[in-house]
Specification:
By secondary structure, chain A is mainly α. Chain A is built from 10 helices and 1 strand. Chain B has helices at residues 21-30, 59-62, 80-86, 108-112, 163-170, 191-195, 222-226, 248-251, 258-261, 280-284, 291-298, 305-313, 318-325, 328-335, 390-397, 402-423, 429-438, 443-454, 458-461, 479-485; strands at residues 3-12, 43-47, 66-69, 72-75, 103-105, 124-126, 178-182, 201-204, 210-212, 232-235, 240-243, 268-276, 299-300, 352-355, 363-365, 372-374. The chains are: A mainly alpha (240), B alpha+beta (498), C mainly alpha (282).
Amino acid sequence: MTDTAQFIDMILFIVLPYVAMATFFLVSIYRYLGRAFTYSSVSSQLLENKQHFWGLVPFHYGILVVLAGHVIAFLFPRELLLFNRVSLRLYILETTALVFGLLALIGLVSLILRRITEPKIRVVTTPMDWVLFVLLFVQVIAGVGIAVFYPWGSSWFAAAMTPYLWSLVKLQPDIQFVSGLSFWVKLHVVNAFVLIGLLPFTRLVHVLVAPNPYLWRRPQVVRWYRKPGGELAESKTGRS
Amino acid sequence: MNVRSQVSMVFHLDKCIGCHTCSLACKNVWTDRRGAEYMWWNNVETKPGTGYPSRWEDQDRFAGGWEKKNGRIELKSTGKGKIIFNIFHNLHMPSMDDYYEPWTYDFQHLFNAPEGPDQPTARPISMVTGDHIDIESGPNWDDDLGGSPVYAKNDPNLEGLSELERSQLAEIERLVFFYFPRICNHCLNPGCVAACPSGALYKRGEDGIVLVDQKRCRAWRACIAACPYKKVFYNWASGKSEKCILCFPRLETGQAPACFHSCVGRIRYLGVLLYDASKIDEVANLPREQLVDAQREMILDPHDPDVIAAARANGIHDSVIESALKSPVYKFVKQWKLALPPHIEFRTLPMLFYVPPMSPVMAARNGDGDTVNHVSRDFFHDIDDARVPLQFLANLLSAGQTGKVRYALRKQRAVRIYRRAKTVGDVGEEEAAEMLKQADTTAEEAEAIYKLTSLCTFDDRFVIPPMHREEAIEMLDDPHERRTAAGFGFVDQPKRGA
Amino acid sequence: MRRTGWTALPVALLIAGASFAQDPVAYFRQNCVSCHTIGGGRLTGPDLKNVTQRRERAWLVRFITNPKAVINSGDPTALKLKDEARGVVMPIPPGINRELANALLDMIEKESALEESQFKGMTIPTAPFTAQDIERGRALFLGREPLANGGPSCVGCHTTVGLGGLAGGKLGPDLTRVFERLQGRQGLAAWMQAPATPTMRSVFRNQPLQQDEILPLVAYFEDRAKAPAVTPAGPASFNFFLIGLLGSVVVLVLFDIIWKRRLRSVRRRQVMDAAKEVLHGD
């Protein structure tokens, strides 16, 4: 029994993460170089714009804040633990995380309902969208469930998950950190890696091309076809 | 001086008969694809009316174009700071409901319907879902004042009109409308380009055509809201924005764009304008009432040796400068001051200009019911008493300044009187000369205006500059690559989801 | 062939992961001392002094490599051990194999012969703890006083009665009665010195608790164990969820207010308004 469990743990927490990360990088880059046209958020706001607001806005704000929390715990575990020294700070942090987690959940449910009930939106929904919805739903439900039933994640993530993730990064995977955790935590971790691995095959690629040069470029873009460098060098003359 | 050339346009509204041939030519060439059915890169609106999408000129709702804030212009919809927070749900983007849901008819049913007591009908089918729908709106739903209590009455250009003027517009005896064909204005300070978070939209340096790089478009939808003319559209099937490309593949082979080429009323003119690109920012920031003049000021005289030298220095080809000398647009806009920019108060500096329309002859039925009596003082009515209130035209074409419109209309009237004196003879030569003087014109100019308005040939109307594609850098590129970057056609199948 | 190729990676990684503790002394320190001493009396598990003389070596190896299997097989000795440990079953030592088990037994044999083994365990004072000890234990538990070696404080995963607020974490077990479960001061202290569950072991392996941190914590747990009733975990979670839900509703309302000028419908509203006007006009 334990041998099998150990073997499954190894597949899920060592093999899967590496396979997922490899797929993520290779396929995203390949897709960007070879099929840049398909990099799009394929918005459906044009077809329906009321429920769109109640789905997209809570979901994105929720998921971004929560993801940011995960990244912070991954990068600054020690600082986070020190921050949590005061119980009140811990409670505020955890409550904020839960609020945004719930926002993500509410938004996601709203989005799924929108996909089901709006005939126009159904037309533009692909099977891959459904796979994505299922995975995201499992992920968010598990996340919220963990926040409620296995507190305080901000502390134990920094203590147990961060070393595990770093052990993966350092190519010395140590699954002892995760093998003893509860089913929901394991589900959340495994599902996260599945999502990362699947990301380049889905519309989620739009997170990779989230616009940042915009904030620094000059407002007007002019492309010259006759000047040396042409489109590739793309002379971005401003309004001057 | 930073001289650039721009392929610019004039639409002579006095000649537009509202036949929609241009729209159909465009639709058949460019937008009869899945996801693009609802798009009309070229459409013809009836004014007064709310147009397509409904009330597009109402920037309180659609937040298109630029606005001045603390002395600087900013995009009204999503500027740099705002985009981060509003990228998930575009606050000002119209939904398909504000355009219309495209449909076809279930024609097969006419053939396949089982025998029954009723004639089979072809019910409308949505081109989005394929389900039967109730048609609520169409691309020119308010054509010829259809549904005017809903549409004509809500025309944003009625702002500033007196109650009397408004009520007269709805009076059956005085009822009036004119047509307003629209394509992308290929602006000098385009809101769509400035708004695009991915930098997918760009203005071509050589001819000023504004395009969407389909490969870089990520469907952030900022362009749609930022264009105050609502001339960037979202293709819901491919997840990319699309817009009028001024038929550049036709232009590059010396042909006029499809809508220009097919125009029955010969209302469209196309030619090169040279302008000073270093002034774009300055002009766009000027107070509202100076915008029309300032934009005219930016447009440079191609006869001026200094301008020619600067143009050459900037790499503008001699043949293009030559073409600018013959440009009908230059004559209408700069020389004759007949053509005016639409809604320049949006501050995008549109490069499509409109010659304001003369109103129909004003007449009233006499009491006996059979004879008609001219109401205006003379045969060609007085401009200020025109059935279309001057203010209305001014709101549409000159940022609310009636003077500009009055000038253009007076000149047009003077040309008519001048021609009448010449051909019919019921107007005296002196009276005609006086009229020309009052309208700030001369007999030679009137003759030229008359010729370019009434006797214009293809070559007069469309002075297409050589595009010198043989010099273009992209001759070295993969043509397939080029196709997707240039705003039309797909190498990859436009598939959603994956 | 393909199958072995596929499984080779995790197996190799496991071996690589386990090899860190091949030295029996180090291994014993890391994995065994939380329950066993050599000559220090029983903790959760029995004192291992001279264990090789009490039992057959073959049996011992069999037991060490898979305690649960031996117990499940109905072996009377193993069942008796389980009873003595109040039902606590020894977990499979990580990365154990026959060679390692033998090496451990050799090491135990050697240590047993010594006057005083290095694994005699901690000596915990039997005198009652002071209120200060308990208070410091509480501070350590809550993390108010950070652990010297940088380990995470208990409250992230554990709770006890009387914490107030939203109580402690629930990833790990409630520690209110841990003092009894681990059979008093000795057992508790030994556990904390080298926690035996996989997660705790991993987390504290490189940042162990210090001697002067263990004592106050033991004091705190001993004090907690005296607390009368055990509060169920339910209400804290439920309250927490309610607060979260309330918060998200507030944020949703905020969204609606912040973006109240978002475009909803222009054309349809225009038609409705006109229709209303016509109706009222008549």
